[in-house]
Amino acid sequence: EIGKMADVSKKADAMRLKTDEARRGCNLPDTESVIQDYFCGIGAGTGRLYITQNYVCFLPVGLGNIMTLPFRRITNIKKERHALLFDNSISITMDDNQIHYFTSFVHRDETFNLLEHLNKHPPSYEDLEDEEPLPVSRTQRGSNNMDDPKRASSEDGGQMQVQAQFKPDTSASKRALQIAAQTREIGVNALGELKTQGEQLDRIDANLDSIHNNLDTSNRLLRGIESLPGAFANSLTKDKSASRSTPNLKDRNLDWKREIPPVDYPVLEKIKEGLNNDHLEPAILRFIEDKFLIAKPNLKPKNGMIWAYDKIQALVIRARHQHLDIKLSDNKTRIRICTSFIQQIVNEFSLRTKTGQINILFEPGTRKFSYGHRAASPPSSQATSQSARDLMGEGGFRRSTPKARDPLKTTFKDADQETRNGGSF
Q: What is the value of pTM for the model shown?
């Protein structure tokens, strides 16, 4: 445990140093954190490309131009060939049609995947304690503040991201929900009463059949007693009462099951390549009623990448920002993802698992957020194909439909204490 704590602290310190370097070198606000950084070249120079929640920054080694590109101004990201020979470059097109070429990537495809993910899906967080979503979005195109990160930060009250400034009146919606709940209960009670009355009618019908059988038997006996011809007729005719079938009671139970639609989140799955290399691949984290799975971007499930919720042991929000580890109870399987929807995913897991089943751990230096509440909003069905900057702040999230559960009010422990409880896997 001590070794794990030291390793976690070391990684957290390394991420803090990278973030400080990017903030100082690219004049970024304090709200920006480095998610990944990569060695690359631009023109005749080389340096490091730092990717944060809202910026792509290039810091040269030695002399060279520092470059800061806001995601909100990026219109296209494309894989390129350098000098028509080396398949290791990326071009980024801005809204003024200026194109920046970055070359000599060692991990070109991973860099491209991360840039594409962040460009389409800006990281967002919500205030679940007040049950009012406060999506964090990028300033809309047309504002010049974003070209000067520090100016944007100061004018936005120290926040790079722009939060929703309105608080809608939810009293009418709450009344409507109460009426809907009352109507549902009335309907359930009515169905129960109809079932009881139907069973009573079935019993009456069965009693009538029994009475008819008794009358037929009585008439036959009387006819045989009254005269010899009647007895002779009984011997030649069939007893009608014996031919009557025993009435079957109808099954009046309603076979109704509500289908809960799946909830999908775009993620980057961290895949092991070789002994020391990891690679980020686009994927979909899909939540279904009793399981969750990792699927390809076309929603085709990956072989063996489906698990029941009761197999989850812990969720670890890593010191490397926007990274999440899902540890299973076999102590062997660890699902590693990078995503803009880290809060929403943690919230889904906390709602779909038993209370107290999983440990949710924040490594040092990570952003704290609330979870365990049905107020969280999954991405819309368009999120995988339409730029999220067009959706954020415009109601572009659809509501989750997890299993019914009382909302959980979650409090946070000290990050260091959580790390001592097993914050590294």
A: 0.65
